[in-house]
Amino acid sequence: MATVKLFSGKQTQYLAEKVAAAYGIPLGGVTLQEFSDGEMSPFFSESVRGHDVFLIQSTFAPADNLLELLLMIDAAKRASANYVTVVVPYFGYARQDRKDKPRVAIAAKLMANLLSAAGADRLMTCDLHADQIQGFFDIPVDHMDGSAIFVPYIKSLELSNLIFASPDVGGMKRARSFAKFFNAELVVCDKHRQRANEVASMRLIGDVKDKNVILIDDLIDTGGTMCKAANIIMDNGAQSVRAVCTHPVLSGKAYDNIESSQLEELVVTDTIPLRKESDKIKVLTVSELFARAIRKIQDHESISSLFIQ
Fold it and tell me: How far apart, in whole angstroms, are the C-alpha atoms of residue 73 and residue 54?
Protein backbone atom coordinates (compact mmCIF):
# COMPACT_ATOMS: atom_id res chain seq x y z
CA MET A 1 0.00 0.00 0.00
CA ALA A 2 1.26 3.46 -0.93
CA THR A 3 2.19 5.71 1.97
CA VAL A 4 0.32 8.91 2.76
CA LYS A 5 1.73 12.41 2.48
CA LEU A 6 -0.21 15.49 3.55
CA PHE A 7 0.46 18.92 2.11
CA SER A 8 -1.18 22.30 2.53
CA GLY A 9 -1.72 25.45 0.58
CA LYS A 10 -0.50 28.70 2.11
CA GLN A 11 -3.82 29.97 3.48
CA THR A 12 -4.98 26.68 5.03
CA GLN A 13 -1.73 25.89 6.84
CA TYR A 14 -3.39 26.62 10.22
CA LEU A 15 -5.90 23.77 9.67
CA ALA A 16 -3.63 21.36 7.79
CA GLU A 17 -1.18 21.30 10.70
CA LYS A 18 -4.00 20.18 13.02
CA VAL A 19 -5.16 17.53 10.52
CA ALA A 20 -1.61 16.17 10.21
CA ALA A 21 -1.23 16.08 13.99
CA ALA A 22 -4.52 14.23 14.37
CA TYR A 23 -3.49 11.79 11.63
CA GLY A 24 -0.11 11.24 13.25
CA ILE A 25 2.35 12.31 10.57
CA PRO A 26 4.19 15.60 9.92
CA LEU A 27 2.88 17.96 7.29
CA GLY A 28 4.88 17.76 4.07
CA GLY A 29 6.90 20.70 2.80
CA VAL A 30 5.62 22.97 0.03
CA THR A 31 7.45 26.08 -1.13
CA LEU A 32 5.42 28.84 -2.76
CA GLN A 33 7.56 30.97 -5.02
CA GLU A 34 5.99 34.23 -6.16
CA PHE A 35 7.23 36.37 -9.01
CA SER A 36 7.17 40.16 -8.75
CA ASP A 37 3.95 40.32 -10.79
CA GLY A 38 2.17 37.99 -8.34
CA GLU A 39 2.47 34.83 -10.45
CA MET A 40 2.67 31.74 -8.22
CA SER A 41 4.91 28.69 -8.58
CA PRO A 42 4.36 26.13 -5.77
CA PHE A 43 6.65 23.08 -5.61
CA PHE A 44 7.08 20.17 -3.22
CA SER A 45 10.19 20.15 -1.05
CA GLU A 46 10.24 16.35 -0.95
CA SER A 47 9.55 13.43 -3.26
CA VAL A 48 5.94 12.36 -3.81
CA ARG A 49 6.70 9.62 -6.34
CA GLY A 50 4.44 6.64 -5.71
CA HIS A 51 2.78 8.21 -2.67
CA ASP A 52 -0.89 8.90 -2.00
CA VAL A 53 -0.95 12.67 -1.74
CA PHE A 54 -3.61 14.67 0.13
CA LEU A 55 -3.64 18.39 -0.67
CA ILE A 56 -5.45 20.48 1.95
CA GLN A 57 -6.71 23.87 0.82
CA SER A 58 -10.01 25.71 1.27
CA THR A 59 -10.97 27.87 -1.70
CA PHE A 60 -12.19 30.97 0.13
CA ALA A 61 -11.43 34.44 -1.22
CA PRO A 62 -9.16 35.54 -2.79
CA ALA A 63 -9.17 33.33 -5.88
CA ASP A 64 -5.40 32.81 -5.50
CA ASN A 65 -6.25 29.97 -3.08
CA LEU A 66 -7.97 28.06 -5.87
CA LEU A 67 -5.19 28.73 -8.36
CA GLU A 68 -2.55 27.62 -5.87
CA LEU A 69 -4.46 24.36 -5.30
CA LEU A 70 -4.72 23.71 -9.04
CA LEU A 71 -0.97 24.26 -9.47
CA MET A 72 -0.24 21.92 -6.54
CA ILE A 73 -2.41 19.20 -8.11
CA ASP A 74 -0.59 19.56 -11.42
CA ALA A 75 2.80 19.50 -9.69
CA ALA A 76 1.90 16.33 -7.77
CA LYS A 77 0.72 14.53 -10.90
CA ARG A 78 3.83 15.54 -12.85
CA ALA A 79 5.96 14.35 -9.92
CA SER A 80 4.42 10.86 -10.31
CA ALA A 81 2.22 10.82 -7.22
CA ASN A 82 0.25 7.58 -7.05
CA TYR A 83 -3.10 9.19 -6.17
CA VAL A 84 -4.06 12.80 -5.52
CA THR A 85 -6.93 13.64 -3.18
CA VAL A 86 -7.87 17.29 -2.76
CA VAL A 87 -9.18 18.08 0.71
CA VAL A 88 -11.26 21.25 0.38
CA PRO A 89 -12.87 21.93 3.79
CA TYR A 90 -14.68 24.96 2.36
CA PHE A 91 -15.64 24.59 -1.30
CA GLY A 92 -15.91 28.12 -2.68
CA TYR A 93 -18.26 29.26 -5.45
CA ALA A 94 -20.75 26.56 -4.37
CA ARG A 95 -23.57 29.12 -4.09
CA GLN A 96 -23.52 29.49 -7.88
CA ASP A 97 -24.88 26.01 -8.59
CA ARG A 98 -27.60 26.76 -11.16
CA LYS A 99 -28.83 29.38 -13.63
CA ASP A 100 -31.17 31.40 -11.44
CA LYS A 101 -31.23 34.25 -13.93
CA PRO A 102 -30.23 34.67 -17.59
CA ARG A 103 -26.59 34.84 -18.73
CA VAL A 104 -24.86 33.72 -15.52
CA ALA A 105 -22.12 31.16 -14.98
CA ILE A 106 -22.63 27.92 -13.05
CA ALA A 107 -19.45 28.46 -11.06
CA ALA A 108 -19.73 25.28 -8.96
CA LYS A 109 -19.63 23.16 -12.11
CA LEU A 110 -16.69 25.15 -13.45
CA MET A 111 -14.83 24.55 -10.17
CA ALA A 112 -15.45 20.82 -10.53
CA ASN A 113 -14.15 20.87 -14.09
CA LEU A 114 -11.01 22.77 -13.10
CA LEU A 115 -10.12 20.36 -10.28
CA SER A 116 -10.65 17.36 -12.54
CA ALA A 117 -8.71 18.93 -15.42
CA ALA A 118 -5.77 19.66 -13.10
CA GLY A 119 -5.58 15.93 -12.31
CA ALA A 120 -7.38 15.43 -8.97
CA ASP A 121 -8.36 11.81 -8.42
CA ARG A 122 -10.71 12.42 -5.49
CA LEU A 123 -12.37 15.27 -3.59
CA MET A 124 -13.03 15.47 0.14
CA THR A 125 -15.09 18.41 1.37
CA CYS A 126 -17.56 19.42 4.07
CA ASP A 127 -21.13 20.72 3.96
CA LEU A 128 -21.50 21.79 0.36
CA HIS A 129 -24.04 24.54 -0.19
CA ALA A 130 -26.14 22.02 -2.12
CA ASP A 131 -25.76 18.24 -2.02
CA GLN A 132 -26.28 17.91 -5.78
CA ILE A 133 -22.93 19.61 -6.45
CA GLN A 134 -21.42 16.15 -5.86
CA GLY A 135 -22.95 15.22 -9.21
CA PHE A 136 -20.88 17.90 -10.96
CA PHE A 137 -17.79 15.72 -10.45
CA ASP A 138 -16.71 12.68 -12.48
CA ILE A 139 -14.35 11.66 -9.65
CA PRO A 140 -15.28 10.22 -6.23
CA VAL A 141 -16.50 12.80 -3.70
CA ASP A 142 -16.42 12.27 0.07
CA HIS A 143 -18.91 14.78 1.45
CA MET A 144 -18.34 15.16 5.19
CA ASP A 145 -21.17 16.37 7.43
CA GLY A 146 -20.56 19.10 9.99
CA SER A 147 -23.30 17.66 12.20
CA ALA A 148 -20.74 15.13 13.46
CA ILE A 149 -19.04 18.09 15.18
CA PHE A 150 -22.07 20.19 16.08
CA VAL A 151 -24.35 17.51 17.56
CA PRO A 152 -22.02 16.66 20.49
CA TYR A 153 -21.64 20.38 21.24
CA ILE A 154 -25.40 20.99 21.18
CA LYS A 155 -25.85 18.00 23.51
CA SER A 156 -23.32 19.50 25.93
CA LEU A 157 -25.47 22.66 26.23
CA GLU A 158 -28.28 20.59 27.80
CA LEU A 159 -30.94 23.03 26.61
CA SER A 160 -34.58 22.48 27.56
CA ASN A 161 -37.49 23.24 25.19
CA LEU A 162 -35.09 22.89 22.26
CA ILE A 163 -36.31 23.79 18.79
CA PHE A 164 -34.44 24.15 15.49
CA ALA A 165 -34.88 26.82 12.83
CA SER A 166 -33.82 27.46 9.28
CA PRO A 167 -33.03 31.06 8.30
CA ASP A 168 -34.59 30.42 4.88
CA VAL A 169 -36.71 27.86 3.05
CA GLY A 170 -33.68 26.52 1.13
CA GLY A 171 -32.00 25.39 4.34
CA MET A 172 -34.93 23.39 5.71
CA LYS A 173 -33.46 20.00 4.81
CA ARG A 174 -30.30 20.69 6.82
CA ALA A 175 -32.24 22.03 9.82
CA ARG A 176 -34.73 19.16 9.65
CA SER A 177 -31.94 16.58 10.02
CA PHE A 178 -30.92 18.20 13.33
CA ALA A 179 -34.53 18.40 14.50
CA LYS A 180 -35.08 14.75 13.65
CA PHE A 181 -31.97 13.64 15.57
CA PHE A 182 -32.99 15.58 18.69
CA ASN A 183 -36.68 14.72 18.25
CA ALA A 184 -37.44 18.43 18.27
CA GLU A 185 -39.73 20.72 16.30
CA LEU A 186 -38.73 22.86 13.33
CA VAL A 187 -39.60 26.44 12.35
CA VAL A 188 -38.52 28.42 9.32
CA CYS A 189 -37.89 32.06 8.47
CA ASP A 190 -39.29 32.92 5.05
CA LYS A 191 -37.14 35.64 3.49
CA HIS A 192 -37.32 37.68 0.32
CA ARG A 193 -34.21 39.18 -1.29
CA GLN A 194 -34.06 42.13 -3.66
CA ARG A 195 -30.36 41.56 -4.37
CA ALA A 196 -27.47 39.38 -3.15
CA ASN A 197 -26.48 39.82 0.52
CA GLU A 198 -29.51 42.02 1.21
CA VAL A 199 -32.75 40.76 2.79
CA ALA A 200 -35.81 42.86 1.92
CA SER A 201 -38.34 41.16 4.22
CA MET A 202 -38.66 38.14 6.52
CA ARG A 203 -41.42 36.42 8.49
CA LEU A 204 -41.38 33.51 10.94
CA ILE A 205 -43.38 30.36 10.26
CA GLY A 206 -43.91 28.42 13.48
CA ASP A 207 -44.14 28.99 17.25
CA VAL A 208 -40.96 29.70 19.26
CA LYS A 209 -42.48 31.11 22.46
CA ASP A 210 -40.42 30.11 25.54
CA LYS A 211 -38.16 27.92 23.36
CA ASN A 212 -34.39 27.70 23.10
CA VAL A 213 -33.85 28.08 19.37
CA ILE A 214 -30.89 26.95 17.29
CA LEU A 215 -30.60 28.31 13.75
CA ILE A 216 -28.88 25.96 11.30
CA ASP A 217 -27.11 26.88 8.05
CA ASP A 218 -24.12 25.76 5.99
CA LEU A 219 -22.40 29.15 5.96
CA ILE A 220 -22.72 32.69 7.25
CA ASP A 221 -21.56 35.49 4.97
CA THR A 222 -22.51 39.06 5.91
CA GLY A 223 -24.71 37.73 8.70
CA GLY A 224 -27.67 39.81 7.52
CA THR A 225 -30.08 36.90 7.13
CA MET A 226 -28.98 35.06 10.26
CA CYS A 227 -29.08 38.13 12.50
CA LYS A 228 -32.44 39.25 11.14
CA ALA A 229 -33.81 35.74 11.75
CA ALA A 230 -32.42 35.76 15.31
CA ASN A 231 -34.02 39.11 16.07
CA ILE A 232 -37.40 38.02 14.70
CA ILE A 233 -37.24 34.80 16.72
CA MET A 234 -36.53 36.70 19.94
CA ASP A 235 -39.28 39.21 19.13
CA ASN A 236 -41.67 36.23 18.94
CA GLY A 237 -40.99 35.21 22.53
CA ALA A 238 -38.08 32.78 22.32
CA GLN A 239 -36.04 32.19 25.47
CA SER A 240 -32.72 32.21 23.60
CA VAL A 241 -31.37 31.90 20.08
CA ARG A 242 -28.08 30.50 18.80
CA ALA A 243 -26.74 29.90 15.30
CA VAL A 244 -24.75 26.93 14.02
CA CYS A 245 -22.96 27.46 10.68
CA THR A 246 -20.16 25.33 9.27
CA HIS A 247 -18.33 27.93 7.19
CA PRO A 248 -17.61 31.39 8.71
CA VAL A 249 -17.23 33.47 5.53
CA LEU A 250 -18.04 36.59 7.62
CA SER A 251 -17.52 39.28 5.00
CA GLY A 252 -18.47 42.94 4.97
CA LYS A 253 -20.12 44.10 8.21
CA ALA A 254 -20.64 40.54 9.49
CA TYR A 255 -18.88 41.05 12.83
CA ASP A 256 -20.81 44.25 13.54
CA ASN A 257 -24.08 42.55 12.58
CA ILE A 258 -23.37 39.63 14.92
CA GLU A 259 -22.34 41.83 17.85
CA SER A 260 -25.45 44.01 17.55
CA SER A 261 -27.85 41.07 17.06
CA GLN A 262 -29.77 39.10 19.68
CA LEU A 263 -27.73 35.98 18.93
CA GLU A 264 -26.46 34.49 22.16
CA GLU A 265 -23.78 32.52 20.33
CA LEU A 266 -22.56 31.72 16.82
CA VAL A 267 -20.94 28.29 16.53
CA VAL A 268 -18.73 27.72 13.47
CA THR A 269 -15.84 25.50 12.37
CA ASP A 270 -12.30 26.33 11.29
CA THR A 271 -12.80 25.54 7.58
CA ILE A 272 -12.17 29.28 7.11
CA PRO A 273 -9.98 31.30 9.52
CA LEU A 274 -11.68 34.10 11.43
CA ARG A 275 -10.54 37.62 10.57
CA LYS A 276 -10.86 38.65 14.21
CA GLU A 277 -12.00 37.27 17.54
CA SER A 278 -15.46 37.80 19.00
CA ASP A 279 -16.94 36.82 22.35
CA LYS A 280 -20.08 35.69 20.52
CA ILE A 281 -18.28 33.31 18.14
CA LYS A 282 -17.19 29.82 19.17
CA VAL A 283 -14.97 27.82 16.78
CA LEU A 284 -14.97 24.00 16.65
CA THR A 285 -12.27 22.22 14.65
CA VAL A 286 -12.87 19.85 11.75
CA SER A 287 -9.30 18.52 11.92
CA GLU A 288 -10.14 15.28 13.74
CA LEU A 289 -13.05 14.58 11.37
CA PHE A 290 -10.87 14.99 8.27
CA ALA A 291 -7.97 13.03 9.77
CA ARG A 292 -10.29 10.10 10.49
CA ALA A 293 -11.77 10.31 7.00
CA ILE A 294 -8.31 10.32 5.40
CA ARG A 295 -7.33 7.23 7.40
CA LYS A 296 -10.50 5.37 6.42
CA ILE A 297 -10.04 6.24 2.75
CA GLN A 298 -6.43 5.09 2.88
CA ASP A 299 -7.49 1.81 4.54
CA HIS A 300 -10.29 1.34 1.98
CA GLU A 301 -12.93 1.48 4.71
CA SER A 302 -16.40 3.01 4.64
CA ILE A 303 -16.70 6.51 6.09
CA SER A 304 -20.35 5.98 7.10
CA SER A 305 -19.36 5.73 10.75
CA LEU A 306 -18.26 9.38 10.64
CA PHE A 307 -21.84 10.58 10.06
CA ILE A 308 -24.49 11.24 12.69
CA GLN A 309 -27.31 8.81 11.87
Answer: 9
| Pick from 304, 297, 243: nearest CA to 269 | 243
Is pLDDT of 219 > 90?
A: yes
d(CA 156, CA 139) in angstroms, rounded, equals 38
Query: What's the CA angle centered on 122, arms 99 and 307, to 5 degrees?
Result: 85
Residues 233/235/237/241 CA torsion (nearest 10 deg) = 40
User: Is pLDDT above 80 for 201?
Assistant: no
Structure confidence by residue, pLDDT tens digits, 46-89: 999 999 999 999 999 889 999 999 999 999 999 999 999 999 99
Catalytic (active-site) positions: 191
- Which pLDDT value is given to residue 135? 95
Do residues 193 and 225 lie in contact, with contact meaning Cβ atoms separated by under 8 Å? no
Q: How far apart are CA 8 and CA 17, in angstroms?
A: 8
Distance, CA of 290 to CA of 133 (rounded, Å): 20
Give me the sign of the Cα torsion angle 237, 206, 167, 185.
Answer: positive
Write down the pLDDT at residue 199: 54
d(CA 168, CA 189): 5
**Cβ-contact 144, 138 below 8 angstroms:** no
**Helix (H) or strand (E) run with residue 35 in it:** none
Under DSSP, is residue 217 helix (H, G, I), strand (E, B) or coil? strand
Residues 6+ apart with CB under 8 A from 250: 220, 221, 223, 272, 274, 275
Q: Vertex 64, ends 102 and 276: CA angle to 5°?
A: 100
Residue 196 pLDDT grade (very low, low, confident, very high; cuts 50, 70, 90): low
**pLDDT of 162 strictly over 90:** yes
